[in-house]
Design a protein that fits this description.
This protein has helices spanning 3-29, 49-61, 83-89, 118-132, 154-159; strands spanning 40-41, 71-81, 95-100, 107-108, 145-152, 166-171, 182-183. It has a five-stranded antiparallel β-sheet with strand order 4-3-5-2-6. By secondary structure, the protein is α+β, with helices and mostly antiparallel strands. A hairpin with a 6-residue loop joins strand 3 (95-100) and strand 4 (107-108). The termini are far apart. The longest helix is centred in the N-terminal third of the chain and has 27 residues, at 3-29.
C-alpha cells in the first residue's frame, strides 16, 4: 500500500472515530424524557376486577371529604356508553380530561366550548377516530366510551358512585399533575358484580 492510500485509510479512520465521539457527545447532552412519577390509574396486570374495585374505592375514601382540593380520578363505566350516556353520568363533574376506549391509550379532551356539552366533545373525538380509520379496511369504528379521567373535589368524586352506570372511581392524590401519571384500562365486563359504596 503506497503512502497516499495509507493516508486515505488513516483519514477515514479518524473521521469514523470523530463521528462516533460526536454521536456519544450529543447523546449525553440530550435530556432524557421525563419519567412517569409513579402514580398510575387503572387496573394492574393480573389484578382481578374485584381487587381493583376495592383498591379504587379505598383511594377515594383516603381523600379528605372536607377538602376542596381537586384530584384526578379514573371513572370506569359498567359497560361501554354512548357519548350522551357518558355525559349524563358526569353532569356534576368540573372537568373531564380524557376518555378511554377498550385497551387503547387514553385520549385527552378539551372542555366544551360555548353551545356545546360534554356529549358533543365525546362525539367529536369519536368522529375523529372514525375519520382516521377510513380506508384502512374492515376495522371496527368505536362508538362508545369505557372510562373517563375527571378532575374534581373529593365530595364530587364520592357522589359519582350514585350514578347508575359508574362501576368504579379511582382517585390520585391532589398533588398528582396531568401528564405525569399512567392510565391503564379497566376490564369490568367479565367480572362486574356491583361495587361497594364509598
Amino acid at each position: 500500500m503506497n503512502s497516499f492510500n495509507r493516508g486515505r485509510v488513516a483519514l477515514a479512520f479518524i473521521c469514523v472515530i470523530a463521528f462516533v465521539a460526536l454521536v456519544f457527545y450529543l447523546g449525553a447532552r440530550t435530556p432524557a424524557p421525563e419519567p412517569i412519577n409513579g402514580d398510575q390509574l387503572g387496573q394492574h396486570n393480573g389484578e382481578s376486577f374485584a381487587d381493583y374495585s376495592e383498591r379504587a374505592s379505598a383511594s377515594v375514601e383516603a381523600l379528605d371529604p372536607a377538602s376542596e382540593e381537586n384530584s384526578y380520578a379514573l371513572v370506569a363505566f359498567t359497560d361501554s356508553l354512548t357519548p350522551e350516556e357518558a355525559a349524563n353520568q358526569l353532569t356534576e363533574v368540573e372537568r373531564v380530561s380524557a376518555m378511554t376506549i377498550g385497551v387503547a391509550s387514553a385520549r385527552a379532551l378539551p372542555e366544551p366550548i360555548a353551545g356545546e356539552d360534554r356529549a358533543d366533545v365525546f362525539q367529536r373525538d369519536l368522529d375523529r377516530i372514525a375519520y382516521s380509520l377510513q380506508g384502512i379496511g374492515d376495522v371496527p369504528v368505536p362508538e362508545r366510551i369505557d372510562a373517563v379521567v375527571v378532575w374534581d373535589d373529593p365530595a364530587t368524586l364520592r357522589s359519582l358512585y350514585d350514578e347508575p352506570y359508574v362501576a368504579t372511581v379511582e382517585a390520585l392524590p391532589s398533588d398528582a399533575a396531568w401528564g405525569m401519571f399512567g392510565i391503564q384500562p379497566v376490564n369490568v365486563h367479565s367480572e362486574f358484580n356491583g361495587v361497594p359504596a364509598v
